[in-house]
Write a structure and sequence with these properties.
468 residues; alpha/beta; Rossmann fold; GMP Synthetase, Chain A, domain 3; 13-stranded mixed sheet; 31% helix; globular
């Protein structure tokens, strides 16, 4: 059996070539027949350009139907897809190109598709083993240089099949796709689920709350980052009625504030389904489709995924095993060896705990751990308290160099307020060593493309908070 992920996806496509695959904002559609033909022509062009199985195809291009077809064409010919954030600078891109040495670098998928228009579609799907490399996803590189996580056809197929099942995809589902496709969330998680379903997706170039609200009545599933949901809630047009027909709202890529979870439920009567994943393993845990979705929890390990807390403590670094866990970092054998335990578990770098029934809670990143006066401080615990204070939009807690404690707790708050009052209120709920020593107020917290707060940026900005 062919282990090529594209072979699996295509086996689920509808037999009717006119069945809609992409529903575009202007009302036009691309049927599955035209979609497959476009993929086939691009696959033929890749081969004509000398792309062989195992070669890398790097893409830094706007989100278009053609860029999606290019991803699938790359899989079809057995090559390795390398998506690059469209916001990367020329210098950043140069690092990735030097590191991955792609056979082809594409910045305009529309032009490439036009070049392929006269070619006969390549019908053959290259046969690969499940462990063959399908994609390289570069991590954000907040500590040291970016690492290329190597994901196989088997990794992606196993995760897609598990998610299709646990999220209950069914005939008639329509996905509203407003995520970027240079990231695992939009490229793999959302896309593979709907293609395995042989269903249509509403294809938006980017998230816009007014456009999402306009098109929401045609959808049943929305996958987004927390910012999607806060912006929808800020729009008065997002009412209980506007969301009533939706089967599920799924959230990931960054932590969802419990206040957003509560406000969403109060507005719509529905609970957002939060899940947890990372570039190195796609989705790891998910709250249940049918069952209790608890704010602040990322749910249970997916079928086939084993999870444990390292170090034997109640709270510690989450370690995982399973069919979606990557094989290692591109051309970094030493780094790969560091990240796996002697018995083969991957150290995620995320700190958390697991209830006796298996439910998982994330405290933060291990690298964000603050050690103040010899005591471990987990920022999430403090942020949950600060976020409940009047006038606090959102908080980020970091450690800054301190002459006595080594590190001291600093809170950065999006909003306005009084530093002394914040510290005094926090002290009522927190031990002295956990209580912020200083509080800074900012208009907005810095975020990356997927909405994650960039604590490394904050640490650099406020590193002189205590002198030095």
């Amino acid at each position: 059996m062919n282990g090529n992920l594209y072979a699996l996806l295509a086996s689920r496509f509808p037999t009717d070539p006119s069945a809609p695959c992409l529903m575009l904002p202007d009302g036009s559609q691309i049927g599955y027949g035209a979609f497959q033909a476009g993929i086939g022509r691009l696959a033929a062009l890749l081969r004509a350009r000398g792309v062989e199985p195992g070669d890398r195809v790097a893409v830094q291009a706007p989100k278009t139907p053609e860029s999606l077809m290019l991803y699938l064409a790359t899989l079809k010919v057995g090559a390795v897809f390398l998506p690059l954030n469209t916001a990367y600078t020329e210098a950043e891109v140069r690092y990735f190109l030097d590191d991955a040495e792609p056979r082809l670098f594409v910045t305009d998928a529309v032009a490439l598709a036009a070049e392929a228009a006269g070619l006969a579609p390549l019908e053959h799907v290259h046969e690969v083993a499940p462990e063959a490399l399908a994609a390289i996803i570069y991590t954000s590189g907040t500590t040291g240089r970016s690492k290329g996580a190597m994901l196989s056809h088997g990794n992606l197929a196993a995760n897609a099949l598990a998610l299709h099942e646990v999220w209950g995809f069914e005939p008639g589902d329509v996905l509203l796709h407003a995520l970027p496709i240079f990231h695992v969330h939009g490229l793999f998680i959302a896309l593979h689920c709907i293609l395995l379903n042989g269903g249509p997706m509403i294809w938006l170039a980017k998230f816009d709350d007014e456009e999402v609200l306009r098109l929401l009545p045609k959808a049943t599933v929305l996958m987004g980052v927390p910012t999607f949901y806060t912006r929808l809630l800020a729009n008065p047009g997002f009412t209980h009625e506007a969301a009533a027909h939706m089967r599920v709202f799924i959230c990931g890529s960054a932590p969802l504030l419990e206040s957003t979870f509560a406000e969403f439920e109060a507005r719509t009567g529905q609970r957002i389904l939060e899940r947890y994943g990372m570039s190195e393993a796609a989705i790891i845990t998910s709250n249940p489709l049918h069952g209790e979705r608890i704010p602040g929890s990322v749910g249970y390990p997916l079928p086939g995924v084993s999870l444990r807390i390292g170090g034997g403590a109640e709270t510690g670094v989450i370690e995982i095993k399973g069919p979606s866990v990557f094989s290692g970092y591109w051309r970094m054998p030493e780094k790969t060896a560091e990240e796996f335990t002697a018995d083969g578990w991957f150290r995620t770098g995320d700190v958390g705990r697991q209830d006796p029934d298996g439910r998982v809670w994330i405290s933060g990143r291990a690298k964000d751990l603050i050690i103040s006066g010899g005591y471990n401080v987990y920022p999430k615990e403090i942020e949950l308290i600060l976020d409940e204070l009047p006038g606090v939009g959102e908080s980020a807690v970091i450690g800054c160099p301190h002459p006595d404690f080594g590190e001291a707790v600093v809170a950065v708050i999006a909003g306005a307020g009084d530093e002394a009052a914040v510290i005094a209120t926090a002290r009522q709920s927190l031990a002295a060593y956990k209580t912020p020593k200083k509080v800074f107020f900012v208009d907005d917290l810095p975020r990356n493309a997927m909405g994650k707060v960039q604590k490394n940026v904050l640490r650099d900005r406020f590193k002189g908070a205590f002198g030095g």
